[in-house]
Amino acid sequence: MGSKDSTEEKTDTGRKPVAVIDIGSNSVRLVAYAGMTRTPIPLHNEKVICALGKGLERSGALNSDGVGMAFNTVSRFVEIARALGAERIDALATAAVRDARDGAAFAKALEKRCGIKVQILTGKQEARRSALGVLCGTPDAEGVVADLGGGSLELVQIGHGEMDDHTTLPLGLLRLSEASDNDRAKAIGIINKALDKHKWISSAKDKTLYAVGGAWRALARVCIAQMDYPLHVLDNFALDRVQAIRLFDVISRLSPKSLEQIKGVSRSRLVNLPLAAAVLERLIEITKPKSVVFSIYGMREGQFYKSLPDHIRKQDPLASLTEEIARAAGRSPQVGHETCEWMAPLFKDESVRQRKLRLAACLMRDVAWTEHPDYRAEQAFLKVLRLPFLGLDHEDRAGLALALYYRYASEPSEPIIEQAHALLDNSRIQRVRTAGLALRLSYALSAGAPGVLKRTSIRIEGGKLVLTMPEDDPMLTAAPYARRLKRLADHLGLGDRVDFV
Fold this sequence. Notes:
The protein is of the alpha/beta class.
């Protein structure tokens, strides 16, 4: 009994929430994550604009009004985290608290009032956590991470899962606004002077510049609106270098009234949007990356990732997340893995990444099973398309969503399905339809039960799609598979045949 209780307690501990309180130069934010899983899934996310760094450039001290707000906000956030049963609460203070002459005293007062430890991050620590956040979502990320906050700009070189050169610059939007008097030309001069000292950032040339931070997320929303882009998801939204510079130039000329009409951009972000665009534009012009990717993961996710046990950190983030989604839907991940192996003969010469995506589709095959049958295809598609934390580029996201759509439906029925098609080339569309139709066939055979598909096999032979199954197995021989087998074969341009053994 004692051993069993110990095991259960250990399992439960991994599922307890963990909280990160980010005491930034502009905002103070709490993110409580659902548990110590490979993907940081937000359970609660709340922020308050305290503007601790307002006036810091001139006074050298924290904003007194902001200090009062921060005390109350952090107190509330600690109580929320405790009420949610958080296993740990990590409170991190960044540039404003780090640089202010009264920053250390402020942190000590917070600790005494709230009963928590407040860690004042060095510039290096802050930069590395931002990079870890990007690597948490995209382990193969390569280029430069740029995290723009209210008090500082962190730059970190990443590649092969590692971090290299880094720097912290006083180019946060509150500081830049005060130093330039909100004059764009003057701000660009300040930006150039700061960036010119760090030649290593040219390592992003022909690679990727990962833009992190709320101001740049707001800029991404404006870009999406200006492009009439079909997918309103910020996670890994990407622009090529020329496209980005052209868009930022257009955005810099938009009136405040025009910007206010863009959905999802708060008024507090609009004030500094031109400066945020100026910093990113100059970074792009200097570093000459192949593309700019907007990441929803940053310093907080880096802190979460840093705290994970090694065996969890080494897991593949997409496989881990989709297994969690399968469990949440009441489905066994085992069947997803079995299904992926079962349909493998239809996908010769696939890359490692293609197989990962196909496995993800198999794991999420029943994500919409609780929906009304008439709406399952659409709901499965939308759920996957709009998940905020998949860590996929938008083509991969659209492909995965379409595979789930075709698991339930044969033909597109909504404009948004056609918009997702527009993100993919014909060979990719062929592939995801094959996966979706194979998922439909697999369910007709097995009813989603573990171990059943292993009693069958599927292959392409002599211009036909051949399904092999035991002739004396009533679960299989009486299954309603014939129509779905033919539909998959027709899609592949093949005949169909069933071999009983």
